[in-house]
Amino acid sequence: MVKHQPLQVYEKQVFVSFVTGIYGCRWKRYQRSQDNSSRWVCTWFILLCSSFLLLLFWAYFWLVAQNDFNEFNLSVYNRSGEWRDETIPILASTIVCFSYITFLLILALFHISLGQQLNLYWLHKIGVLATLLTTISGVVSVNDIWGDEWGILLISLQSTAPFLHIGVLVTVTAVSWLVAGYVVMVLLVYIVTLLAVYLAPLTFTCPCIMDRDSLKPRPDIIGRRGAPMLAPENTMVSFNRALQQGADSLEADVAISVDGVPFLMRDRTLRRTTDVSKVFPARQFDDASLFNWTEIRSLNAGQWFLESDPYWTVQTLTSRDRSRIGNQTVCSLVEMLRLAARANSSALLNIRRPPSEHPRYRSWFMDTLWAVQKAGISQKRVTWTPDTDRGRVRGLQQAANEKLSMEEISRRGITSLTLHYSKASYNDIQEYLANNVSVTVYPVNEPWLYSILWCSGVPSVSSDAPQVLRKVPYPIWLMSQNAYKFIWITSDLVSFSIVIGIFCFQNYHMIRWRINGMQNCNPEQIMLSAVTRQSSRDVNIMKEKLIFSELNNGLSSTEELSLYPENGYARYSHGGLSR
After folding, report:
1. What residue ranges are annotated as transmembrane (predicted)?
2. pLDDT tens digit string along 493-505?
C-alpha cells in the first residue's frame, strides 16, 4: 500500500503576517518574498532611518528647550504681532510623528531579522516623506526665528551625555544581532561605530562629575521680572510672589516715560502686557516711553495674563489671586525698589534708553538715579545694565551684559557680568571666577540647567521660575570621577562581551569549519550558515540540497530532520519529505 505525503505543509506565521501586513500590506504568504531587497526598496529604508534620526534630534531639542518656551513665543509675537502659544502644536505634532516613524522602524528591523523584503506600503511612503519634509521645514523655521537657541543642545549634553551614552551603547550592542552575518564592509562600519561609542566619554565635559567636597555654595536665585509664571511680569504682585518663593534678588526692565518717570516694561510697546489697544487704540504701536505716567498708570497690566496664560499656570490660581492679578497696573521703579528695600533684597535693573526723539533722551540717567534715591534703598544693593556712563555712576554697581575678554574686563574695571546661558561656557565661567569676576546667568528655569551652573560654581542665576528652583536642594545628579569611570568601563566591557557572543553564535558553523577543517562539514551547511541573515531562493535550494545530502548519508527513516521549521520550510519526517 502506497502512503501519500502532502507535498507542502504550511505552518502558521501569525507574527510574520502581522509585521509584513502592517509594514507593507502583505498579509498573505504568497505576497511575501525572502529575496534580497532592491535598491529602490533600500532607499525607502534609508529615508525611514533618516526621518527617525532627524525626529530624534528635533524631539530632543524641544525637550531641553522647555527652559525657553516663553522666549520662543515672544520671538513669534515680535514677528506676527499676535500672541499665541506656538509650542503646543509643535509638541503635539512631534509626538505623533515620532511615534509613527519609530513604530515603522521597529517593523523594518523585524523584517531584516526575519529575512523578509522591506517592501514599504505606498501609504506609509507618503507618511514618511511628509514627516521628513515637515521636520526639515520646522528646523529651517526655528533656525530663522530662534537660531540662537541651538546652543542649548551642547549645553544640555553637559548634563545628559553620560545617560545618552548608555542609551546609544545599548542600541549599538543590540544592532549587532542584525549585522553579524553581513559582508566585511558592513561589519567594518559597525566596528568603527562601536569603537567610537566606546571612547565617546573621553570628549565629555560634565561639571557634575566631580567630588562632593568640591561643590560650591548654592547659586542665589534672582526673580527675573518677579515670578512671571505665577503673576504678570514686572508687576507688584509678581515681585511679591518671587520673594515669597525664596528669591534672593529681583530683576526688572526699566523704561522712562515722556515726563521722566522710570517704569517697568519689557517690550518696546504696551500691546502685549496692557490693554492699550482698548484705551488708546490709535497709539497702540507707539513706543511705551512716549506715553506720560498718568496715561501708563491708567492701563490694566494683569488681564492679559489671565487671558493668554503664557505659562499654563492660570488654572492653579485661586479666585482671590485671579481677582488681584486682574486689577494690576503698570509698576513704577520706585515701587519695586521700595519693596526690595523692605525685604532686605537687592535689585538688578535692565535699563532701556529712550529713543532719540524722546524729551528725556539726555536726562534719563538722572531720572533713574533720582528714583533709586527716592526709594530709600542702599545704592550698593542696586546693580544696573548696560555698562554705560560708568564715570557718572558712583556708589551703584554696574554689570556688563555681554561676553568680554579678561583684558577688556580689566581695562574697563568690570567686576560683574550678566550673561545668557548660551554664552557662558564652563571654561569661560572658570576663567571669570578665577579672576574675581562675578557671573549671573539667565534665564535658568529648569532644574537640570540650574544643576549644571551650580556644579560650575556660578554665584547667581536669573530665573522666571524661582518656585521651581527653590525645590532643588542639591544638583539633580552628582557623581565622582572614579565612580563614572567604573560605570563607563564596565558598560563597555559588558557590551563588548555581548557583541562577541552574538558574532560567535551567529557564525558558529563557519568558525567550526575554520577550526576543524572541511572533512566533517557539508558545504551546503557552511554556506547556509553564512547567509542566514539574507534569505533568498538560493538559500531554499541549499536547504533542499542539505536535506537530500543527509538522506544519502544514511539518515534513519525514523529520524526527523528539521531546518528552520519556524519559517515553514522543507522538513523530513518518518520517511516522507514535505515542503
Report:
1. 41-63, 88-110, 122-140, 152-172, 179-200, 486-505
2. 999 999 999 888 8
